[in-house]
Amino acid sequence: MRSRCMTCMILLIGVGGLGACDSDPSTPHGMRMEERLTPAALRAMTGVSQIPRPADKSAFLAAVKRHTPASVREHGTTRFVLLDVTVGPSGEVEKVTAVPSPPGPIHEAVVLRRDAAGHQVEEPLMGGESDVQLGPAAEAALREVKFTPAMRDGVAVPFTVRMGIHFTP
Predict the structure, then answer these.
(1) Rounded to an integer, what distance in angstroms lies between the CA atom of residue 1 and that of residue 4?
(2) Is pLDDT of 89 > 90?
(3) CATH number, residue 101
(4) Looking at residues 15-42, what average pLDDT do you find?
(5) Which H or E run includes 34?
(6) Crossing angle of helices 135-143/57-66, nearest 10°?
C-alpha cells in the first residue's frame, strides 16, 4: 500500500513539488500526510533525477480535449483513466497501457500552488475509478505530446511513469 502512495508523489514532483497522500498506513485515519520530494529522494526512489512530464502543458491539455470520447460528451460526466506511460529518451511516448485502479483505500495526489491572489489551491493529479476503455483515447492524446525525458546522471533515459487523465465533457 505504501508504494502506491509513493507512486502518486513521484507523479507529483514532475508537476509541481508538494504533495499530499491520504490513507497512508503510517498516518492515523482521516489525517493528511504532506511530503516534499527532493531530487535526492526522487533519485533514491526511482534512479532518476527528473521524471517525464509534458514539455508544454497547454499542448497536453489541448490534445486531451481533442481526443475526449463522444461518450464522455454525450453523458456529460467526467471520466478518469489511469495509465502506465513509457517515455523514451527523445521525449516521445513509446508505450501506453491503461490500468485498473488499485484495490484498497484510494490515494490521491494533489499539487499545492498559490493562485494570483496568493491563496493556496489544491489541484488533484489523480483520482476516481480508472475506466480502462478510455485507454485508446488517452494513448492518441499522449502520442501527440512531446515530453521532457527522464534524466539519469545528465543523460536522457527511457522511463515508465503512472499518470491519470480526466476526460471532461
Answers:
(1) 6
(2) yes
(3) 3.30.2420.10
(4) 51
(5) strand 32-36
(6) 140
